[in-house]
Amino acid sequence: MLYDCIRPFCFLLIVGLEIWGRVFSFVLYSFLVGGFSACLGTMEIFVFVSLSLPSRLVL
């Protein structure tokens, strides 16, 4: 009897946790990928500047 009352709440809790887990993992994944690409972008700019500086100094 008590289990029949709790079962819908358990189902909703599991579904809600699964939805939140997917949303959270998607947000975390996009944040990590965005941060990684931003780090790569700043490294590319740094490498480009450091490579172009000696040629400017020579010229």
Structure description:
The protein has 59 residues and is mostly helical. It has a domain at 19-46. The protein is 97% helix and 0% strand. The protein is built from one helix and no strands. The protein has one helix at residues 2-58. The radius of gyration is 25 Å and the shape is rod-shaped. It starts with a helix and ends with a helix. The mean pLDDT is 78. Keywords: Membrane, Transmembrane, Transmembrane helix.
Summary tags:
1 helix; 59 residues; mainly alpha; rod-shaped; 97% helix
Task: Give a short summary of the structure.
Helices cover 97% and strands 0% of the residues. The protein has 59 residues and is an all-alpha fold. It has a domain at 19-46.
Largest sheet features = none
Poorly predicted regions are: none
Taken as a percent bin, the fraction of beta residues is: under 5%
What is the first-to-last residue Cα distance? 87 Å
Order of helices and strands: H
Structural class: mainly alpha
Based on CA atoms alone, the radius of gyration comes out at: 25 Å
Q: What percentage of residues falls in helices of 4 or more residues?
A: over 70%
Protein name: Transmembrane protein
Transmembrane segments: 31-53
Organism: Medicago truncatula
Keywords: Membrane, Transmembrane, Transmembrane helix
Question: Topology of this structure?
Answer:
Layout (H helix, E strand, L loop, with lengths): L1 H57 L1
